[in-house]
Backbone:
């Protein structure tokens, strides 16, 4: 069933991806079923004291599917999901896959502004949140939303009789992920059962994920990295065990690693630093750990080199995007490549081009914008025709906005971004969205947000403001944004008031000069 607003692959590409075995015609619900048939009594999922075998998880997925149907949700309906790393998230996801309902995966940090936007854009008919007040707000504000579920009322969905039927088709959209890489408001990324199944299978293979893997979901499982690279879904495909962690803090995660004998975890670079320092200090038993995947933002070489001596396991750098393309350093790569590159493409059919501002390929070794096309990279955002015209080349390559260099080995090094997104330790701050929200403050005449370098986070945000009357303080602006309800990582780390903005020759705000000012204004306040 093709949903209105979905741009799929042209038939000749779809045929090729099928013929080459990337797309195997199996749904994500079917993959869980296969794992349950192979090892029904193995442990699939652990959330605190609660545990599910594969047989139990498979049965509960069927129950949730039946529950969703009983509540009136049908194949193709969108369900806005706003949940932390709890078992209900996994059950719900598989219930959706079985029922053909499409989950829209908001991040736990998102608040009403983001959720309203996502629910409206997706045309969601229901929402699920662990926050009852938030769920009520969304039901009120999004006209299409008819129902809200909270984790407390989750039992309503677990009906007595599991629904064995798989309503989805492998070519259907399985899930709508959020884009961290685009400007403006977040966009929705359609991932089909076929393409996402390949994504997670190939990721499991390249990270040696097997039935012996115990994967700790420390990052939000709603994000592509912890969901399917290989993450929760790839581990369940391989027959391993997924352990959910409420937080990625060492205080929470280290005891779980010890107790559950965790082998694999994915982290963003600021967390790698925190874990390295905490491990030296706390001396936990991390002897079961085999692999730390680091991605979402650029990991510094110095941190990369500390992973094995301090955590006692291998490092895999992952440079990926929810839009599709994933790059991994390989487990047998020389240390030099693992420490200094963000890996190479997952698939032999990932067509990666690095181009200059005029769209011409750059010579090897020179930075260029990464364009990509392939068996698990989207051909269009969901219901965003105008944005799609800018984000894709006429022959279907996705313009990532990332500036990347290619080494002779084929490994990529991420140098920065061409677009206005601040990568705050893996959390993406969409500059334009926050600027628009700040413009609504009565004391803000104009605003421009730029990133500045930060040792721990890679980048932080600085909002330059031209005031209207009495200049606002950072506390004023943070209070304003918090009242609107946005994710805390989008709040400006620094606010500076200017009389006017520096302009380029064309009269546009000169963000290069502002970026420089942001660095210098930090030095001033550090001295003060
Ligand atoms: P998201 O979809 O939230 O994962 O964001 C994808 C974007 O994060 C990419 O387009 C890159 O800009 C950035 N990114 C992801 N992984 C890395 C990495 N290992 N090094 C540098 N940037 C990264």
Residues:
């Amino acid at each position: 069933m093709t949903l209105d607003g979905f741009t799929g692959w042209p038939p000749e590409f779809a045929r090729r991806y099928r013929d080459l075995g990337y797309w195997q015609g199996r749904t994500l619900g079917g993959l869980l079923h296969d794992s349950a048939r192979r090892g029904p009594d193995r442990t699939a999922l652990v959330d605190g004291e609660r545990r599910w075998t594969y047989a139990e998880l498979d049965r509960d997925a069927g129950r949730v599917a039946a529950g969703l149907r009983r509540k009136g949700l049908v194949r193709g309906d969108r369900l806005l999901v706003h949940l932390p790393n709890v078992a209900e998230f996994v059950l719900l996801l598989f219930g959706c896959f079985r029922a053909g309902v499409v989950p829209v995966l908001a991040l736990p940090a998102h608040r009403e502004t983001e959720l309203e936007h996502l629910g409206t854009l997706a045309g969601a008919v229901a929402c699920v949140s662990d926050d009852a007040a938030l769920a009520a707000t969304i039901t009120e504000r999004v006209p299409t939303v008819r129902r809200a579920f909270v984790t407390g009322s989750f039992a309503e969905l677990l009906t007595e009789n599991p629904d064995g039927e798989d309503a989805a088709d492998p070519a259907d959209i399985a899930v709508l992920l959020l884009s961290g890489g685009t400007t403006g408001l977040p966009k929705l990324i359609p991932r089909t059962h076929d393409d996402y199944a390949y994504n997670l299978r190939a990721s499991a293979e390249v990270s040696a994920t097997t039935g012996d893997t115990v994967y700790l979901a420390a990052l939000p499982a709603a994000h592509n990295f912890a969901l399917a690279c290989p993450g929760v879904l790839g581990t369940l495909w391989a027959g391993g065990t997924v352990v959910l962690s409420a937080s990625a803090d060492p205080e929470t995660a280290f005891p779980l690693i010890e107790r559950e004998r965790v082998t694999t975890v994915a982290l963003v670079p600021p967390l790698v630093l925190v874990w390295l320092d905490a491990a030296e200090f706390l001396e936990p038993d991390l002897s079961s750990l085999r692999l730390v995947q680091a991605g979402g933002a650029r990991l510094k070489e110095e941190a990369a080199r500390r992973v094995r001596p301090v955590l006692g396991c291998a490092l895999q750098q992952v440079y990926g995007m929810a839009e599709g393309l994933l790059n991994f350093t390989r487990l047998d790569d020389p240390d030099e490549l693992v420490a200094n590159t963000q890996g190479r493409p997952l698939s032999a059919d990932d067509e990666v081009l690095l181009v200059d501002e005029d769209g011409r390929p750059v010579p090897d070794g020179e930075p260029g914008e990464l364009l990509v096309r392939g068996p698990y990279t989207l051909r269009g955002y969901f219901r965003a025709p105008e944005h799609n015209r800018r984000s894709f080349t006429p022959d279907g390559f996705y313009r990532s906005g990332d500036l990347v260099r290619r080494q002779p080995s084929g490994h990529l090094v991420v140098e920065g971004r061409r677009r206005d997104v601040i990568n705050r330790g893996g959390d993406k701050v969409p500059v334009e969205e926050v600027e628009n929200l700040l413009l609504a403050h009565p004391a803000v005449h104009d605003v421009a947000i730029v990133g500045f370098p930060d040792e721990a986070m890679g980048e932080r945000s600085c909002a330059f403001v031209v005031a209207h009357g009495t200049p606002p303080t950072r506390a004023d602006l943070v209070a304003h944004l918090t009242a609107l309800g946005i994710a805390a990582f989008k709040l400006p780390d620094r606010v500076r008031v200017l009389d006017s903005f520096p302009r380029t020759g064309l009269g546009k705000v000169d963000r290069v000069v502002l970026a420089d000012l942001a660095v210098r204004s930090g030095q001033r306040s550090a001295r003060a």
Q: What stands out?
A: Residues 180-181, 224, 295-298, 317-322, 342, 400, 402, 414, 417, 423, 428 surround adenosine monophosphate (CB under 6 Å).
